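Project outcomes to date are best conveyed with an example. Our students and postdoctoral researchers have been running inverse folding experiments weekly, and each run begins with a structure described purely in tokens. The record below, which covers 352 residues, was selected by the lab manager from last quarter's runs and is presented without edits.
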């Protein structure tokens, strides 16, 4: 059909998605429904080998691995702290019976959300959903145990790997995804390190040329969340990068201005409007909202939520979630000493 088919796994859901010509809607929907609801479970051993290769690739990608290392440090024993991809040990322990049992419990009609966008009608999608899924008589799978927001702590950990750069993540627990303050958090995160005009990008990359990549991000889940900063640096720039990140966190609440908040809001609103030109982005937004039990916002509604954010709301969040005294630091690199010396300068806990 000349379309594109892919799948993804996040911390709280799995996703199968496709893009194709509107003329192929019925056939493409049927293929996707079979994959999700009625998989043959064939070639499991071959697929296991593919995923084991993916694990090996992931382990060789410190710029990706560092984020899981931070989540493990912040969330500790909770499943949110585990790697999505698993390990060679867990993958080798799976067999067809285990996978089939999991599928039969979780991939059931009450748990599945279908979202679509493009040249189609809602009624047609409903008709196809009823034809290919219907009522399977199953009950929704049990909800995961709530992840109470862990206590923030000022800690540091190091993972040795033979790398050319030191890969660093700093982070702390944050709010849940249904918190009404999430719109203010997006303004604060974007101003700090969410774009090429952000504080971190301008100070560390543009003015000093210390890094190729530096940014901040947020990850919001059902019961808790994460705020973080990430960068990669050669050994000679590590201390200065850590100093600049720490300085930004220490002065964030007091230094952010009304003008900076307004400029950042305009940037976010522009990104929202442009994203609506993509049917795929619309589809993902609709699906996530329904799956996560969030209100489906209209374009005007989303823009209004950003527009009402003011400096006072941003400052309050900076003081609550961006206090460096409650942030953890993790690093992947060839030797621990440079990182130990750096975090020692800012009273982080000792590096194991």
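After processing, the design step wrote out the following sequence:
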């Amino acid at each position: 059909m000349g379309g594109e088919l892919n799948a993804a796994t996040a911390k709280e859901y799995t996703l199968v998605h496709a893009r194709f010509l509107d003329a192929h809607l019925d056939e493409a929907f049927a293929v996707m429904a079979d994959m999700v609801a009625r998989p043959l479970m064939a070639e499991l051993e071959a697929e296991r080998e593919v995923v084991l290769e993916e694990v090996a690739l992931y382990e060789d990608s410190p710029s990706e691995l560092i984020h899981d290392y931070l989540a493990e440090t912040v969330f500790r024993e909770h499943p949110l702290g585990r790697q999505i991809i698993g390990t060679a040990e867990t993958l080798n322990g799976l067999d067809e019976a285990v996978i089939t049992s999991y599928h039969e419990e979780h991939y059931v009609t009450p748990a599945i959300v279908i979202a679509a966008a493009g040249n189609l009608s809602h009624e047609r999608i409903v008709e196809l959903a009823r034809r290919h899924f219907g009522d399977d008589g199953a009950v929704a799978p049990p909800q995961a145990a709530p992840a109470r927001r862990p206590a923030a702590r000022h800690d540091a950990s190091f993972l040795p790997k033979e790398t050319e750069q030191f890969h660093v993540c700093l982070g702390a627990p944050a709010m849940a995804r249904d918190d009404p303050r999430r719109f203010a958090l997006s303004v604060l995160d974007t101003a700090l390190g969410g774009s090429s005009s952000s504080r971190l990008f301008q100070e560390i990359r543009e003015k000093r040329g210390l890094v190729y990549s530096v940014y901040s991000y947020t990850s919001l889940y059902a019961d808790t969340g994460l705020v973080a900063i990430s960068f990669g640096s050669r050994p000679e720039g590590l201390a200065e990068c850590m100093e600049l990140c720490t300085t930004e966190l220490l002065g964030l609440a007091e230094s952010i201005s009304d003008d900076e908040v307004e400029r950042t809001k305009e940037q976010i609103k522009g990104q929202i409007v442009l994203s609506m030109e993509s049917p795929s982005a619309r589809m993902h937004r609709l699906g996530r909202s329904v799956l996560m039990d969030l209100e489906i916002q209209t374009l005007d509604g989303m823009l209004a939520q950003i527009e009402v954010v003011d400096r006072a709301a941003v400052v309050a969040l900076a003081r609550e979630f961006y206090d460096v005294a409650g942030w953890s630091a993790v690093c992947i690199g060839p030797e621990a000493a440079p990182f130990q010396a750096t975090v020692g300068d800012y009273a982080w806990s000792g590096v194991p």
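The first strand starts at residue 4 and ends at 9. The two ends are 54 Å apart (CA to CA). The training component of this project remains on track.
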